[in-house]
Amino acid sequence: MNILIIHAHPEPQSFCTALKNTAIEELQKQGHQIEVSDLYAMNFNPVASAADFAERGNADYLNYALEQRHACQQKVLAHDIQTEVEKVQKADLLILNFPMYWMSMPALLKGWIDRVFVSGIFYGGKRFYNHGGMTGKKAMLSFTLGGRDHMFGEGAIHGSMDNILIPIQRGTLAYVGYDVLPPFIAYHVPYISQEAREQILLDYRQHLHNIENLPAIVFPTLEQFDDKLYPLKNA
Amino acid sequence: MNILIIHAHPEPQSFCTALKNTAIEELQKQGHQIEVSDLYAMNFNPVASAADFAERGNADYLNYALEQRHACQQKVLAHDIQTEVEKVQKADLLILNFPMYWMSMPALLKGWIDRVFVSGIFYGGKRFYNHGGMTGKKAMLSFTLGGRDHMFGEGAIHGSMDNILIPIQRGTLAYVGYDVLPPFIAYHVPYISQEAREQILLDYRQHLHNIENLPAIVFPTLEQFDDKLYPLKNA
């Protein structure tokens, strides 16, 4: 497989960076081709704005998604966006590797999504979920957080991690067509021993070793809904 | 009340901007004091990084939350962060006003949270949820999106909006102690008539007119959990 890792941690010595490096090593050992976008190192711009469009479909009023479609058609996407889009298109597997900030991605990674998941390529019209632009490709999250695993789940203080990840796994990755693989989650990272960290890296190797057999998370398909996206009674 | 509106839309003529302007007008009419941070107009930097700390607790290894705590104690928070923190501290009600991007906030607003919701002021140790730093204050989302309301809910194509908003309403606003008021959601905005838009603005005025009586969303309290944050059996 061609694999793209998007990495977004401000500290090069972080455990999150060690996860990224472990993935590169383990996946290369399996014969995969790896590409990495290290967003902090690239000084990537995360702010979707009018500056992304040198040429506008409508110069008087910015609708960001419509301008994305226009820029795709005219092949005038901003250079930094075009570069990232091409990496994503080449990749059979996309891994987002990040520290969880506020039950979500750091803004730098969120902005990579905002700017790179372009309307007209990733989705558009009825091309979403199992008809999205990235259908046939896989995506996976690997992330670190401070909380312990018992703080997540039904009845736990923060609620279920599956619910917390809905905007990313369902609303973003599955929405553009990806088969979303189970995430790799490193809990309580700032507080654990060196031995515990090494065990997590071993667990991550195991998770990655098995990656071609991991079953994707099940999300709704468009076939369960009618033309106006009301649920079909028999679906 | 002192009310702070954080606004994050790249188009000054947008309907999202009209929501913000409607809130200012309606809330001033009620006698409240309004302050606005227009993040695009301010060219706010959303990227949490080492550059936020002129003086470091640990110069060799960046743990962002630990450096936030250090910078609080030493009173050396970056100027743009300190300014926003003071606005938040002054406000009895915080309104986040934004277009929904990828079932979440635009990166620019996410980065305002990442950088401004400082460890040591907003939360820290056992100061979170109903013991968070913003206890006694209220917060509310107002946002626009392209989807229609029937696309959200149990069994709907995108699932329930309450679930989609968990990372923001529960994991962020309630986590730091806010009473989270019901959101105001403007559906299908890019596709509706001028009359429908005007109706939404009237609905928003009504929502705001009643704001001091809106009941907060119920989230778990720390008293339902033991010292290690395991659920208490009788809670």
Structural notes for this entry:
Two copies of one chain form a homodimer. By secondary structure, the first copy, chain A, is of the alpha/beta class. Chain A has one domain: Rossmann fold (3-Layer(aba) Sandwich), CATH 3.40.50.360. Helix content of chain A is 34%, strand content 13%. Chain A contains eight helices and six strands. The first copy, chain A, has helices spanning 15-29, 39-42, 64-74, 79-90, 107-116, 161-164, 166-174, 194-209; strands at 2-7, 33-38, 93-99, 138-144, 179-180, 184-186. In chain A, strands 1, 2, 3, 4, 5 and 6 form a six-stranded parallel beta sheet that branches. In chain A, strand 3 (93-99), helix 5 and strand 4 form a beta-alpha-beta unit. Chains A and B meet through helix 3, helix 5 and helix 7 of A and helix 3, helix 5 and helix 7 of B. Chains A, B: InterPro entries: Flavodoxin_fold (IPR003680), Flavoprotein-like_sf (IPR029039), NAD(P)H_dehydrogenase_qn (IPR051545). Chains A, B: One of its GO terms (molecular function) is NAD(P)H dehydrogenase (quinone) activity. Chains A, B: Keywords: Oxidoreductase. Chains A, B: Belongs to the NAD(P)H dehydrogenase (quinone) family. Chains A, B: Residues 1-208 form the Flavodoxin-like fold domain.
